[in-house]
Design a protein that fits this description.
With 329 residues, the chain is an alpha/beta fold. It contains ten helices and 16 strands. The protein has two domains: 2-121 and 297-327, Alpha-Beta Complex (Quinone Oxidoreductase, Chain A, domain 1); 124-273, 3-Layer(aba) Sandwich (Rossmann fold).
Length: 329
């Protein structure tokens, strides 16, 4: 089968179309024929080598984190899925034709959306869920600032936060104001002409997806005991412990997050880093919200499998509204 792989790190490196062996599943795994995959910023970061310290891959490796497809084989201990089920998941190695996925990372695809739309959901949906629900414990009438509202995570996080009853502020460009308004954002800030740190005050939660400079500004808009949760870094010691990293990397994470942790402590707020964990259970919750019409996928553009490198370039340009999807089958 064919797969797009990273053969060496580099921002300007292209993915290589390679012939690889079809996966052999374990007892607790499901083999999925991939119909669609989606592209995320993390794919570009992995390709460039930005995560090589904490995510050491052996070359060549298949990239991609989101899949939607059909079950073609189930392991001996799998009980939740059967051959023919339409499913979706977040699982490394998605830019290919077949993939082996652990049963506990997989969920049935929402019934009312296409394979392409389903493929756009897992990584960003799980990220939004784990930031707002699991780690952020966002409550009704609390105020949350979600950066980059027209991006992949932002479009889902706004809808989820509104479902939870929160007041949502977000940033975007003037061309995307109508989009984020349609998703439910209460306060929209044009990042090109306005400074959010002069407008926002006493927020309960910040979902940071931008650089460290923006994070430092965002921490200052929190009320005492508020939470800033970043999905773009810097990683902290708690993340290193959760990921099972060695003592050296734990110390590296401590140094990377020292400045922002110090600022947070000074302002009596909390800072943490979140790296999405695959979870079929969380995806089931998201599926229910999609089936109920509470959350809708936002797909900017669909590329054919042969145009996977073009899809990567489009993401790297940083102008996608919602998600970019690859139609595999």
């Amino acid at each position: 089968m064919e797969a797009y792989q990273v053969k060496r790190y580099g921002k300007n490196e292209k993915l290589h179309l390679s012939e690889i062996a079809k996966p052999v599943i374990n007892d607790n795994e499901v083999l999925v024929e991939i119909h669609a995959a989606s592209v995320n910023q993390i794919d570009a970061k992995i390709k460039s080598g930005e995560f090589k310290m904490v995510m050491p891959f052996k070359f060549p490796f298949t990239i991609g984190y989101d899949v939607a497809g059909i079950v073609t084989q189930v392991g001996a201990k799998v009980s939740k899925f059967k051959i023919g089920d339409e499913v979706y998941a977040s699982c490394m190695g998605a830019f290919t034709e077949f993939i082996a996925i652990k049963e506990n990372a997989l969920a049935l695809k929402p019934k009312n959306i296409s394979m392409e739309e389903a493929a756009s959901i897992p990584l960003v949906g799980l990220t939004a869920w784990q930031v707002l629900v699991e780690k952020g414990n966002l409550k009704k009438r609390q105020k949350v600032f979600i950066q980059a509202g027209s991006g992949g995570v932002g479009t889902i996080a706004i809808q989820l936060a509104k479902h939870l009853g929160a007041y949502v502020a977000t940033t975007t460009s003037a061309t995307n104001i109508d989009l984020v308004k349609s998703l439910g954002a209460d306060l929209i800030i044009d990042y090109k002409t306005q400074d959010f740190e002069t407008i926002l005050k006493d927020y309960d939660l910040v979902l940071n997806s931008q650089d460290t400079k923006t994070l430092e500004k965002a921490i200052k808009i929190l009320k005492p005991d508020g939470k800033a949760i970043s999905i773009s870094g810097p990683p902290d010691v708690d993340y290193a412990k959760e990921a099972g990293l060695n003592w050296l990397l734990k110390n590296v994470m401590r140094l990377l997050s020292f400045k922002i942790k110090k600022l947070a402590k000074k302002l009596h707020v909390h800072y943490s880093f979140l790296f999405m964990k695959p979870s079929g259970k969380h995806l089931d919750e998201i599926t229910a919200l999609i089936d109920a019409g509470i959350i809708r996928p936002v797909v900017d553009k669909v590329f054919s499998f042969t145009k996977t490198n073009d899809a990567m370039s489009y993401i790297e340009a940083g102008r996608a509204k919602g998600k970019v999807v690859i139609k595999v089958k």
